[in-house]
Amino acid sequence: MKLQFLTWPEVEAYLTHSRAIIIPIGSTEQHGPIGMIGTDALCPEIVAAGMAERRKILIGPTLSIGMAQHHLAFPGSVSLRPSTLIQVVSDVVESLAGQGFSHFFFLNGHGGNIATVQAAFSEIWARASFARSQSALRLRLHNWFQGERVGQLSRQLFGDGEGSHATPSEISLVLSAYPEASREIALDPEQAPSGPIFDAADFRRRHPDGRMGARSALASAEHGRRLRAAAVDDALEALGQFVSL
User: Fold this and answer.
1) 3-243 carries CATH number 3.40.50.10310
2) Alpha carbon 198 to chain centroid, angstroms
3) Residue stretches of the chain with pLDDT short of 50
4) CA pair distance 184, 217, nearest whole angstrom
5) Residue 142: exposure state from Cβ atoms within 10 A (0-12, 13-18, ≥19)
6) Separation of alpha carbons 47 and 225, rounded Å
7) What is the pLDDT of residue 133?
8) Could you tell me which of 95, 101, 102, 117 has the C-alpha nearest to residue 44?
9) pLDDT for residue 4
């Protein structure tokens, strides 16, 4: 169930049997010559949809702009400052918590969000701690690309060609839902260089086509369908453990 498609009485009825919600969170950033700019937001949406097919769970609106300052030298990339993203996450949680939601499962598609979202969780809990009150809120960040089943399958399919940005796994997952987005473009080199991440200008200098360590051309819709199934299993397992807290 998508929150956007419900009415408020339907949400109120949902809260009588569940206080959990999935919040897909990603980014709007370049993904090399063949990966769509929306990849990191589309991936958690695809996984969340698979979860909803198997379990009656509410899916919130996707937070599609994340912490991606290091991609800003590539046209089309959009970023929030870490401080802004912390406030966005906090406002989303506190908006829904005031209505009765207690368990927030952030389903993440972008590695650059991890530290900032965890900092947002710390800020939320700190407000309760300093107010000497007990918070009923439970907050969890699940990175679909770090699930055990996804990791095993990615290693099997792509080996060291997975890399860390514009990966064949994430591009494949998008292609599983949007096969028409496939692009036949020769990549040179086939496997992109790896390196550290600093500011946007440095990233563009080190990674001129936007990829990091990845052989993006290994991606396919068929691989994506297998990765989707693995990612859904990983996420449902994590959700089941989380809602019992």
Assistant:
1) yes
2) 21
3) none
4) 8
5) buried
6) 11
7) 84
8) 117
9) 97
Residue whose entry in the numeric block shows the structure tokens 């046209």: 75
pLDDT at 175 (0 to 100)? 98
The H or E element spanning position 24 is strand 20-25
Q: How far apart are CA 174 and CA 90, in angstroms?
A: 28
Residues near 146 by beta carbon (within 8 Å), at least 6 away in sequence: none
Q: What are the residues facing 104 on neighbouring strands?
A: 21, 139
Tokens 């900092």 sit on residue: 119
- Reported as type and span, the H/E element at residue 221 is helix 221-243
Which pLDDT does position 134 carry in this prediction? 84
- Sign of the dihedral through C-alpha 92, 97, 100, 105: positive
Annotated domain spans of the chain: 3-243
pLDDT of residue 135: 86
What residue has token string 């569940």?
A: 18
Peptide bond into 61 cis (omega under 30): no
Burial of 231 (0-12, 13-18, 19+ CB in 10 A): buried
How far is the CA of 103 from the CAs of 39, 58, 118, in angstroms?
Answer: 26, 11, 15
CA dist 121 and 112 (Å) reads: 16
Residue type, 111: G
CB burial of residue 104 (10 Å; 0-12, 13-18, 19+):
buried
The DSSP secondary structure of 49-112, one letter per residue, reads HHHHHHS--EE---B---S-GGGTTSTT-B---HHHHHHHHHHHHHHHHTTT--EEEEEE--GG
Residues 101, 109, 168: CA angle, nearest 5 degrees: 155
